[in-house]
Amino acid sequence: MSKLVYKGCDVELKYNPKLKNTYIGVESDKKILVKTSNNSYTYILNLLELRDSWIQKQLKKQKNYLSLEMNLEDEILLFSQKYSIDSEEATLLRTKLHKLRISSPQKIMKCYDDFYKSIATNYLQERAVHYAKVMNLSFKTIKYRKMKSRWGSCSSLKIITFNTELMKLKKHLIDYVVVHELAHLKHMNHSKDFHAFVDMYLPYSKELRRELKYIKLR
């Protein structure tokens, strides 16, 4: 594994002689990943030039993404607002952190995850009950867990699962996810009827969906 620089971006190279093709990926607005069986820098730079139009487009998209990261032990991110770890909003988290006998990055992150799950359990339950009543729908139960690839899900058994990372988003985006998952109780797909149903309760759902796409899950 080695690195080079291409037009101001770090290029991480992963060499594997067994690869039949070369793969290019854009991981951030400053990082490009290249997996290849050819370890010639000249070959790689030429390939990047050939794919430059696509690469620049992907880099531009990355600049629009919003990150949910924060400085652990210094702040929390709640409803898209950052608060000091000493704030009233972080009281529950401070309590959890103070109980740690041995402080490690993994245990600190576990405290954060537990904190967001606790907040989510109360807040999302209230929002789901509210919108279920408005939409004339009923669910069996709600589950809460940290997920890396989706904001929520709804099963055919009427079990809704919400990503606890939702607590870091703006409240109108949280409501969109709640309505979206509840709508699956009626339409178990993403058909035109499904989107029309969501639009009945959130007229600007298309804009909200687009806004949500630019938020990175970690």
What do you see in this structure?
By secondary structure, the chain is of the alpha/beta class. It is built from seven helices and nine strands. It has helices at residues 41-50, 52-64, 91-98, 105-135, 171-183, 192-201, 205-213; strands spanning 2-6, 9-15, 23-28, 31-36, 75-78, 81-84, 141-145, 152-154, 159-163. It has a four-stranded mixed beta sheet with strand order 1-2-4-3. A three-stranded mixed beta sheet has the order 7-9-8, covered by helices on one side. Strands 5-6 form a two-stranded antiparallel sheet. A hairpin with a 2-residue loop joins strand 1 and strand 2 (9-15). Helix 3 runs antiparallel to helix 4 (105-135) and helix 4 packs across helix 5 (171-183). The longest helix has 31 residues, at 105-135. The chain is globular, with a radius of gyration of 22 Å. The chain starts with a strand and ends in a 5-residue tail after the last helix.
Helix content: 40-55%
Beta-strand content bin: 15-25%
Q: What is the radius of gyration?
A: 22 Å
CA-based shape:
globular
Ends: how far apart?
23 Å
Listing every helix as H and every strand as E from the N terminus to the C terminus, the arrangement reads EEEEHHEEHHEEEHHH
Number of helices: 7
Poorly predicted runs: none
